[in-house]
Structures are given as structure tokens and as C-alpha cells.
Amino acid sequence: MACLVVCALIWGFAFVAQVQGMDAVTPLFFNATRFTLGALSLLPVLLVLHRRRRTDGRTAAHDGVEGVDTVGRTILASPVVVGMICGVVLFTASTLQQYGILYGKSAGRAGFITALYIVIVPLLAFVFLRRRIGILVVVAVMLAVIGFYLLCVTDGFGSLGLADLLLLFTAVLFATHILVIDELGSHVDAIMLSFVQFSTTAVLSWIGSAIEGSIDWDGAVAAWPPIVYAGIGSVGIAYTLQAIGQQWVPPTRASLLMSLESFFSVVGGAIFLGEVMTPRGYLGCALIFAGTLLAQAPARVPKRLSSSSSASPRPEAHR
User: Fold this and answer.
1) Which of 24, 57, 186, 205 could be a cystine partner for 31, CB 3.0 to 4.6 Å?
2) Of 133 and 305, the one with more pLDDT
3) Helix (H, G, I), strand (E, B) or coil at 105
4) Are 154 and 280 contacting, i.e. CB atoms less than 8 angstroms apart?
5) Among 308, 290, 317, 300, which Cα is nearest to 142's?
């Protein structure tokens, strides 16, 4: 839980960095540089873990593959394969998000539409994974959605445009990313998974940036502070914390915890940009916190009612 809250904190404060970075470079080039930095920031960690495993007489392939079926051992037990799958989803989601923000030019509108992934996660889990949705989680999601509306949407939705459709699809992709990590990432090394998915996203972003001719090193130099923060902080640290945290927290509650990034983005705006929230915004924050706290209740109930409850079908929720 703590990993996911810190993840949301870093992502929230990265909002300022992303806005500043977009003033100097294009979305694809911005993602190419920051995901490259994110991958490079994990190399020292990988080297340390590799040496430790050699000392302990273990290999990365031996770590955390219990529970994978016979077919999965040959393909989905590999952090490289899982990381590449996550990387493709992450590349698509992050690229569409950046372009959606660029075209929409409305942070509040974009924040609310993207935050719909907290609703889409349990819906996708119910439709494709046949996971039941508990009543407390339903109430928690409703409170969080209302809170996001009060916090982010202050001028109405108006008519849907291209930016809105891009951000809506982004929300679906981020929800998919959460479920893919939950389904496949719990059986592989989290650090290696993060490195591979960052590298995959970076390579695809470099290819896209080269195709559109948006590689701009002068712009990168001008925007190096936000790029460094977004790369090492938002990518290298936060996405790794997501991969680690989701090994312990089911996807619906994980999405609610990570959705706190919108709250922390408001805090970051107040600290670094001098923004002040309205009473409506404070009410929205209170509802988001209420929904997040309520979402933790189902994790404790099955321990006392494990004989009759099916609220948490995955074993890692009880670790």
C-alpha cells in the first residue's frame, strides 16, 4: 500500500514537470527521453541484485515463479516477455495521454477523464477475469469518481472532442496496464519487468519521434529539469513502485490508491505554482480520501470470513 501511495505522490508532483516539458519538446520526444532515463536509472539496481543473487546462489528466473502453470513457464514466466507486453501498453497509453493533454489544453478535464481508469479497472476485471465486485469497492469507486469530478471539472464537459476521446482511450489502456501487471507481473521479478517495459516504451517512442522528425536536442537541454524528474522520478521510481506494490494489493484497490495522483497534483500546484483550491476542490479531495480508505476495508474482511467470502480471488492479496 505504501509503495502505491508514494507512486501516486511522485506522479502527482510530476504534473508540473510534464506541463513545463511540453513547452519545449513534443510528446513523443518527451516520452523518449524520460523513459530512457527511467530505464537507465534502474541499471545500478539490477547490477546490485544480480550480484546478490550470484552470492546467494540464485537466479532471476527462479524468483517468484511459483503458481505459474506449465504453459506459462515457457513464455509468461519470463520478465522480458511480460515487460515487453507491459511496455507496448504503457507506450500507447502515455503517448495518447500526452497528445490528449496537448490538444485539449485543459488539465482539469484531462485529469478527470484519465482518472476514469479507477472505474474501468474493476469493470474490465469483472468482464474478462470474472472477478466479483464487492459492495464496498463499488461505493469507494463512486465516492472517488464524485471527488474527481468536484476536484477537476469546474467548467462542465461540453461536447466530446478528439482530445476527450484520446484521453478516454488512455484511461482504458492504463486500466489494462494495471490488470496486465496484476495477472502476469506477480510471477516475475518486478525490477527486471520495470526495466524491460521502460526500455520497450523508450524504443517505441524514439522510433515514433524519428518518424515524425521531432528529435530536438536543443529543446531537451532547455527542458532538462522536468525531463530528469519525469524520467528518474515518475518513470524509474514510480512505475517500479507500482510493479512492486501490485504484487501485494489487488488491482481495484491499487487503482484507487494510484488515483491519488490527481490530489497530489493539486498539492504540487499549490506548492510550486501558488495555486489555491476552492471549497469545491477541498470537498473533492475529502471524497477521494474517503473512497481510498473505504477501498481498504474489503482486504481485511476476507481474513475473518475466509470460509464464505470470495472478494479476493488472488492469493497475493493475503500476503
Assistant:
1) 205
2) 133
3) coil
4) yes
5) 290
Q: What count of other Cβ atoms lies within 10 Å of the Cβ of residue 94?
A: 25
Distance between CA 4 and CA 9 in Å, rounded?
A: 9
Which amino acid would we find at residue 289?
A: F
Among 36-40, 49-53, 209-213, the minimum mean pLDDT is found in 49-53
Taking the C-alpha atoms of residue 21 and residue 230, their distance in angstroms, rounded to an integer, is: 9
Residue 311 has φ and ψ, to the nearest 5°, of -70, -25
Return the higher-pLDDT residue of 77 and 308. 77
Domain limits of the chain?
Answer: 1-48+78-133+160-276
The helix-helix angle for 117-129 and 135-152 (nearest 10°) equals 150
- State the pLDDT confidence band at 74, using cuts at 50, 70 and 90: low
CB 199 within 8 A of CB 236: no
pLDDT in tens, 167-195: 889 989 998 998 988 888 777 888 888 89
- Do 118 and 109 touch, CB atoms closer than 8 A? no
CA 144, 263, 179, 95 dihedral sign is: positive
Q: What phi, psi does 101 have (nearest 5°)?
A: -65, -40
Looking at the chain, the whole-number percentage of residues with pLDDT higher than 90 is: 20
Please state, in angstroms and as integers, the Cα–Cα distance from residue 162 to each residue in 25, 159, 168, following that order.
21, 10, 10
